[in-house]
Amino acid sequence: MSGDAEIDLGPKCPTCGEPWxxxxxxxxxxxxxxxxxxxxxxxxCPDCGSHSTIARLSDSANLSCRNCGGxxxxxx
Length: 76
Ligand SMILES: [Zn+2]
Ligand SMILES: [Zn+2]
Known about the structure:
Blueprint: E1 21-23, E2 29-32, E3 38-41, E4 73-75
Antiparallel strand pairs: 1-2, 2-3, 3-4
């Protein structure tokens, strides 16, 4: 069977590196189902200071900075 070589498991956890980061019911909050750590999406990039508009309950497309690709997640 020819199929998708890449399975989209989801965004990777910055702490344990496992692709089990999932959004919670709170906007901008994520939780890793593997190590059970919680993260929140920053409103500005720690690397370049670029602001990102946090889309409410968005998909995982903007977990990283659009400008420099920096990590927008902060452990809480
Ligand atoms: Zn994790
Ligand atoms: Zn940036």
